[in-house]
């Protein structure tokens, strides 16, 4: 847990407000309110989630960056959860493209509490060039129960979810399952049958997720 310098302005959007993202209403338990720090206008941009393991391999991190860059350049807002590993790589790669290519982090804490603490600078850059989102009030700490709820927001906001690396029991698979239940596209990047972080992606493919080897194959499946 790390206290974030108090933002200049945090917006609170209640369900029913015209600025409230309508895709969240597909959830059986939509957030009653969203706290937003950053550019509210980005909520209208088509979004794609890139998620995966916190303990990603070097190849996984490279894949996350490559997918984030190309999908952002195609006009999609890159969404992830500010976690270590794949999430951080996707956010960072998008920010590296410049101010026309933006990213959004859905947080499992209040927006004045950044977790993990080593992502404080990353969160600051996302706030300045994109937006931070949470359904949790200011001061809310990182509790284990918060992160599955964060994942449902990521799944609902996105038109598709790309899973880069994941174990068979992971939060990324929760996000993918929720996305599938909501009618979103689910994509999985395959890997070695001997790599434990490929097992979750292979399971998703067996369950009907689209196997993708590059960002172009993701874009071919999407309409936005």
TrEMBL record:
Residue span, Smf/DprA SLOG domain: 12-222
Superkingdom of origin: Bacteria
Database matches in Gene3D superfamilies: 3.40.50.450
SUPFAM superfamilies: MCP/YpsA-like (SSF102405)
GO biological process: one example: DNA-mediated transformation
One Pfam assignment: DNA_processg_A
NCBIfam families (alphabetical): dprA
Family listed: Belongs to the DprA/Smf family.
Protein name (record): DNA protecting protein DprA
